[in-house]
Structure formats: structure tokens, C-alpha cells
Amino acid sequence: MTETVSGTPSTKVDKGAGQGLTLERVFSTAGVHPYDQLTWERRDVVQTNWKTGATVFEQRGVEYPDSWSVNASTIVTTKYFRGAVGSDVREWSLKQLIDRIVKTYTKAGLDHGYFATPGDAEIFEHELTWLLVNQYFSFNSPVWFNVGTPSPQQVSACFILSVDDSMDSILNWYKEEGFIFKGGSGAGLNLSRIRSSKELLSSGGTASGPVSFMRGADASAGTIKSGGATRRAAKMVVLDVDHPDIEEFVMTKAKEEDKIRALRDAGFDMDLGGADITSVQYQNANNSVRVSDEFMRAVEDGTDFALRGRKNGEVIERVDARDLFRKISEAAWACADPGLQYDDTINDWHTNPETGRITASNPCSEYMSLDNSSCNLASLNLLKFLKDDDTFDAPLFAKAVEFIITAMDISICFADFPTEAIGDTTRDYRQLGIGYANLGALLMAMGLGYDSDGGRAMAATITSLMTGQSYKRSAELAAIVGPYAGYARNAEAHKRVMRKHQAANDTVRTFGIADNQVHKLATQVWSDVQEVGAANGFRNAQASVLAPTGTIGFMMDCDTTGIEPDFSLVKFKKLVGGGSMQIVNQTIPRALRKMGYQPEQVEAIVAYIGEHGHVIDAPGLKLEHYDVFDTAMGARSLKPMGHVRMMAACQPFLSGAISKTVNLPETATVEEIEDIYLQSWKLGLKATAVYRDNCKVGQPLSDGKGDNKGKDSNAPTTAAEVETKTVEKIVYAPVRKRLPKSRASRTTSFTVGGAEGYMTSGAHDNGQLGEVFLKLGKQGSTLAGVMDAFSIAVSIGLQYGVPLETYVAKFTNLRFEPAGLTDDPDVRMAQSLMDYVWRRLALDYLTFEERSALGIYSADERQRHLETGSYELVEETGSAAELIDDDHPTVVEVRGAQATSLETSDVHDITDAEVVETKDTRGSEQREVPAVIHTQEAQTSAELMEKLTGTAVDSPLCMTCGTKMRPAGSCYVCEGCGSTSGCS
Fold first, then answer.
1. Catalyzes what (predicted)?
2. Quick one: average pLDDT of 894-908?
């Protein structure tokens, strides 16, 4: 017999330890394996760095469902398949990957008494498999990396450390952070226990203060990153607002930004990844000030505020609260740091105050819990629960949450942890972080504006249902396998927080049928939480957060990440067999139909958006519907407070916080940042971070569009830098052509991935390369000796007539460390030192035609290509498919260039023009139809937005594939390969 909630079966729970869960199928079908319900196909995954042409990854014949996009399969294959590429043990099918995870979870569930019978375990396995293979949810990256492999079974992505006021503790902090960074994860901690520089040591000397020790930790993070990681170390540093060194802490990164400007103006290379940027401190961490209600009230009232010593709490100094708040906002205006964390709000929602306060967060600021703890994450794809009638399937969503929370809790039973203290705390409190992605796409598809009462109500009710259902399942699990170890001492506090969640749910005002249905179920679920929790306790101290969902968002083919709105209305879709095409977001037609637009109106509006990238003046679109299509970037970008209000709507229904940055335009003022920080506190947020466009000097270069704040990578190549060569053809026996005693040569200094070197190349009188000498490593070292021998061998080969093109073809794209960003504007990234050297030699000594065949271009040549554009008519939409084929010419009408007749398979160049429409010219019939155009101008949605708006997107370049990343929560994610800038 089963319970029912709003007409939907609910899992039967047999009370009493050891009896286990009795499960019923919801998603899978009895007698049919979830894999057998899908159509599978083989694909080739070949990933290249589009800037350098280097092959980054290649695995052919991988197996995926045909419903998975090329982008999703590429990211999963490159990031999550285990085993050496090319070996027999390498995973080659999504089935192998999911089985590795799900079977490990199922076995652990059986071993630890979670299931009543083996039959229930099989149902759990099939349900979890169905949800994963159909992209309804995903675990965080460490699960895919580690579970079911010989590696340590680390399942957590978020860590919080602690440090005390002793040298042993400080050095241990460095060590623990290093191990976490080495594993590709990040950590946060609060430094407020460390004595300030205004206090005395027991020996009578003056303490160094936390900011001083931050330098060592920052250098450690940078060193570990440059020692082999492909992204910056992810870390969060927090300091309490009443710490005597708070002003020094606030200004650390702002002062470094001034240093960057001064060094740049003096001619140093201060680009992100530049040769001289490493001289700048504090760049490897996000900084946050932990503010109290007392401080924020002092800011409102204009009174002073006490800074207190760490040893005994005595008042060291009194400062003007508004003046300090102003300095915080000025620093954030200048360099985006520090953010704010609202201490009293955080701890008011803390379920374990008897164990200790919450003092810090993970690097992305969504996980907030006890010191020396960790959290594993999973996120649901909200768009999967949108029904055909455009309402949200709340009962089905609730059932998915049940299965996912069960799996997440099981993972703690077998998980490994980077330190013993973190393992103990996590096993004792079992913190979980269920969340979601695709909120922005869901709201748009439902015809709801992100910054609207209806949009916020829908987001709030979904978040409430998710957390309520999670805690209900947690209470049910407590009846079977027991509450978390720390529950008894925190029982009253935990139940108080459950009542706060329930009370917040009762205050939500709904605006339509869809959100009312979700709210009604959430209300019932929170009532069940109180009842079941009172009887059983809870299995988990924490249930939910909203993480960035960068890589796993792409794995689920989500249009939007985490709580974010849609980034832009147009984006790129990768095609099977290679290439990509520009498309209008698929949620837009659905939203237009939902709002009552007719098919021909939908077609016209979609075509307009495809051309302009926004909806302003779209034909037939009503003004009152514009806000549905507001995005993070573009002509109708959301106002900063729109982001804050959405966070405030969801925050009361989350155990943790929200990873999100409030983006502001470059013209934003310090006063606006002050207002955002103040309103965030008043609205009950736990944390806020801001980013003002173009506030950082050491940001990545923009290719073609936007301002370049560092070295000019688009500067034209001088005649001295490009020389032609004449290939001497050897017909018979090779004859050595020695170089003259006195010959022209050039010496090039370079940096690849932080490793420095020098190259001297000598040429014959006709400009043909004749010798190369490389200086790497110290004289007398093994590396220096090997390079000398290599240089001599290559030089003799060149003099005996081996074409330079042959060397370039053989040695470019070799991959080994050191690799990464270079200081050469023509070769921004290199797969290895050899890859860089031969690309540089090709640029110096080969003609344009010879280099083009090898895919090697200078920055100036790439820029000219971007300005000219290469457009290829890939496919027609709407009525084009039946009107146009390869046997009938079309006319492409453009702005700024004469109309051009062409066959649909032709490729043509249009200078400074943009395709507007195509027309069929068959006989007398002329039909206007929208066309999908494949361009070579942009490679990601971020670069496409730069093209459409003419403004730069402040995002770093991907270290793996070279494309511009886009914001995801408080970090960045690459659409091309799924790499993130610090969040798993």
C-alpha cells in the first residue's frame, strides 16, 4: 500500500531500522532496461583549439543516444570517460560511464541497508539510470571523475577549511589547500581567528596579520595551478568586518589592480596569463567580508563601529561604519572584490548551531556550513519537467528529488575525503547540495519574465518544493538508517529551521495556475516534513544549494546554468561531423506560442531575433512581452536589482546559498554597488558578489571586438616579422647548403605555460631558414643538452633540404607540459614548447599560402578574416526547405554589400555585411524565408554577443580550447569543452 500526495504515488517507507525502502517505478518501465528505450549511435569526438588549430582531444566511435547533442557528448567524452585514450580500458560508451556510477551507488545502498529487498535496489538502479541517461539530472563532476574507478572515491566538489591563530595551523592550511587544489577542487575559509597586525604576540612582537599570510597561500595556489592544472585554483578567503585588519583586507586586490595598471603603462605584459602578471598578488582567491547585522544597522544609522582584537575581544579601534562600507564598495567597483556574506542571516538558518557557527563558504559561495566539511552536489534540469500544456509537473519533479537525494546520501557511505577532519565532519552531518539548472529557460518557455512577480513566484515555489521534498526524504531515511550523528545535540535548532522554511513557503504569493499547483504541493510537503521529522529526526544537516552547474549544465543540454537567466537569445549549435551553426534559442518559439502568437508571427519574430540578437522592434511582438526575453547580455539586459530580487525569492528555501554574481555595466557607480549590497541584506540574501564590466585590467584579450586592456594582440605584423622563402628542391642526392659566415638571424624570447625560453634562427641570403638554436633550462642541465642536440639535428636537416613545412607539420600539435598561454600575440596558446616554436618559425619564414595549408595565421591575418567574414548557407528554415535545393539559386540580401546570387552549397565572402534573408528565385515565385547561417566570426555565444552588440564580454579565454567562456554563477564555463574557471 502506498501513500499519495496530490494524486501521485509516494514511496512507501517501512519504519524501523534495517527494513529499508520499498520503491515503486516512476520513470523506468518494468521488464525494459532504460537503455533499450533509446536509439543509440556512434560518434567521433575530435576537439581542436580553434585559435591554434591544434587537436586537443580525439576519440572515435563513442556511443551516445541520438537525443544527446554533439556538445554534450563531446564534453562528457573529454571530461568524464576514464582510462588512457587509445587503450583497451578507455571508456567508449555513455552506458559504461553511467553504469560505473549507478552500480556503485546501488551496491553501497544494499550494503548499508537502504533497500528492503534486492528488487527495490534494482528499481533504484533503473530509476537512477533513466534519470541520468535522459538528462533529467546530473551529479557534480567529482562523482563522474572518481566513482567506480581505482582512484579515491571523492564525491564532493565543495570544501570549507579552518585556520587558528598558530603557525602550525597556518602551515597546515597551506598544506590542506594544496592537496585540494591538486585534486582539481576548491576550498574556502575564514581568517578572522588570526591576530591582527595591531596586536602583540606572546613574545612581545607585533603579529603579521591575516593579510600577510594570504600572500603565502596565494603564491601556493598559483604555483600548484601552474604546475599542471588547466584552470586557476579556486578558493575563497573571508574576513569578519570587525577584524582590526579589515581595511587592509578590503583594499588588497584594489591596490593590486592599481599596480597592474602602472605596470601595463610601463610596457609590461599584464594580460591574463601574461609573462608579468604573476608579479601581482592575491589574484587566485575570491575575497568576501563577513558583515553582521550590527554593522549594517550602523551603516544605515551613520554611527561608528568597533573593531575587536582576536585574542580577548577588546576594542582595538572604532571606525565610521559608512566610511568602511564605502571603502568596501569602492574596492568592489574597482576590481569586483570583496563580496559580502551576511553573517547573522546565514547563522539564523543554521541547523547545527550547537556544534559551531558557520564562518565561511566554498569558493563559489553557495555551500555554507561547518568548518572542515564538504558537500556533494547534484542538479536537476528544470525544463525536463515542463509538460505539453506549459505547466510544471510538480509531482514528477518531487519523485525525481526523492531518488536523487537518496543516491546523494548513499554516496557519503563510501566516499573518500582529502583530510581526516573533513571526512569526520561530513560523515557526522551528511551535508547534501541538491539544486537545479535551466531556470531561465523554463521561465521563458512558460512566458514568464525573469524579473517579474510571476517569474519569481514560480522560481520560489519550485525551490521550496525541492528543499521540502529533500528534507521529507531525509526524515524517511532517518527512520531506516538513522539520523545524522550530530542531530541529537542540534534537534531543536534543526526543527526550528524547518519551521522557518515552512513559514516562508506560506508567505509566497502565486500569480497563476502553474505556480499555484507547485505551491500547493510544496505546502503539503512542508507539512509532512514537520510530522515525519518530529518522529524520526533527519538524515542530513543540509539538503540544498544553488550551484553554478557549469560543466554538468552542458552535460544535460541546458540552455541556462543554475539560477541564471538566459545568457543570450542566439547561440551556437554543434553539428554532427563537425562545424556549428547559429540558432535562436529553442525556448523562444515555445514561449511565443504560449503567449498566443500565430505560426507566421512566431516565424517572423524568430527570424528578427536571429538577425539582431534581441527583440526590440521585432515585428508583431507586443511591448508587454518584451521582458520575457530579457537576458544577461545584450540590448535588453536585466537590471542588477532584477538578479538580486530573483535570488531573494529563492533564498528562504535553500539550506545553503546561491552562486551568482550581479553584473553591472561599466558606467555603474559606487553608489549603485552600495545600494545592491544594502538591499541584498534587507532582502535576506546570505551572500552577494558584484562585477562591473571592464573593471579589471588583467583580463583576457578580445579577438576583433571589444576593448583590449592589455597588450595589443591585433597589432599589424611588421614587414620585418614576415619573410618569404624559396624552397630549394633536391632532385638527386642531397647536398648540404651551408649558411654564410655572416648571416641574418633573429632571437625570440618566449613564455609557454610559465616556462621561459629563447630561440635564435639564422637564414640564408634568400631568407630561407637554415638553422635553429633553442635555449631552455640551465646550462649543463639535461634539458639544455637535449635541446642543443635537437637544434643541431634540425639545423643540419634544414641545410640538407628538408622543407620547413615538413618540420612544422610534424612538430606542431605535440602535447606535453609545459603548455598553455604564451606571451606571443600571434600564438596565444600552445600545446607544448615544440608546438609554439614551430608555429613561430612558420610565421617567420613561410608564406601566407604555405601557412594557410597548415592552419597557421598571424593575429593580424585572423583579425582581417574576422572583419571580412566567411558565411556559409548551411540550411534553410521555415518554408525554405521545400522551395530551395542545390538545383535552384538563391539570393542572399545583405547590409553594406551588393546582393549575391549563389547556390545553397556555395561559400561566399561578404565584407562588413550581415545576412538578412534569402529569396527563392525559381521562375516568377519569390518567397522570403529565414536562413540559418554558419559563420566563422564567432565560436561561442559570448563571442556571438560581442559580434551582435559591438561590446566586449568580460570573460576569460578557455585554457583548453581557446574560446571565450561565459558567466556561470560566480565563475565561468566554456561552451566548447565544458571547462570551468573554478567550479566543478
1. a 2'-deoxyribonucleoside 5'-diphosphate + [thioredoxin]-disulfide + H2O = a ribonucleoside 5'-diphosphate + [thioredoxin]-dithiol
2. 33
